[in-house]
């Protein structure tokens, strides 16, 4: 029966993809699906509609889904965090991914959108209506909401108060997993000491203490290297090399470290784990990364950039450089999956957020599409019977999808609207000022183009799909801001049904902890 249900689900997905591919022709013709059913009480037009048939197939697949509600049923947990991946980002990335495959894009589904359970998450910090990543990731990793700017310390600690933070630490899911003998990993395209990945292991009242902290407190990079839970984190990959090297050391990019205490934390990591028991690998670029034999590696540490890793759209596809998020996810899983006690892995697509802050939808969305590819790899290479996968965002951004573009209009392009007959017509795509505008815009940010006269930039001859184009913004700001609305959550595996509904962000920690048996009474 279990295999039959999986077959039904796979058939449903295949039929949906087929229907989407046909529907993306832009034609109004009815699409006949193989083996379509006839339903009593509805019209012939409904029975012959691909929309009706594919929805029925999806209902059947969802009804066949097994729900494992037993605490501890998830041997493994993977948390995917799209930094800044709000609902509008998911929608736009979905369309872009479909259009990259020659489809209209609207009916396409990103990998995680095929998961059987979804819900909404409230993202506010305890002191801010619109949150930051430190407070939101702390909620996801500890089950406790806290202030903006602080990492895994309680909300009664003032930001930057070193002494108080020592009295109110919060234990993270990574630490709980380590203490139970599970393998653990953190992967990010941002600096591994940046707010989102840092919240998995560090406890500081100021997210900016990446390589230096006041007397009495320990900076984020040191906390990673010296983590006492279990035997420390097994897989660490991302950017931020500069925060682990002293200022008198130059890395392979010719960039100096930032540590003023003289400590070389890379060497300290090697010393800690080069103990005759662990097989270790430290890597800084693609050639060394690809050479790592995951089957023979117990501890993997990869720092692929002095600061943040490259945007996916900028990442050079050569023999050196940086691995993709999907490649890091694959290698990380290969290392972690050797542990019979299971693992906890957090994967962040950190540069979705940075693309948005720059008012640059092209880079933000391209990273979101790559994020979905990494999730697809995890879905294809794990078992839904013993692995809980949770996909969410820490917060949203102020990017909007607006106007009335025709179906299939390039998501990064200018709005092409319809005339009264429904035909695409450029003259129906101008704003009240007589100028064209793009489907994607920002409520604020560096793309503000109106001068003192209030006149917008004329986009007629500008390629708005180019890599460096900054979408227009209503309010001028040097960096586009986060947004405060709810974000989505999608899940598959034991306990996945618990994400349904609208929940507080810290609730997701408890979903993972219950499913993985991380908390003991």
Automatic annotation (TrEMBL):
It is a lipid-anchor; GPI-anchor. The lineage of its organism: Bacteria, Pseudomonadati, Pseudomonadota, Gammaproteobacteria, Cellvibrionales. Its cofactor is Zn(2+); Mg(2+). Coiled coil: none annotated. This is Alkaline phosphatase. Belongs to the alkaline phosphatase family. Mg(2+) binds at residues 83, 194, 196, 348. GO terms for cellular component: plasma membrane; side of membrane. The active site is at residue 133.
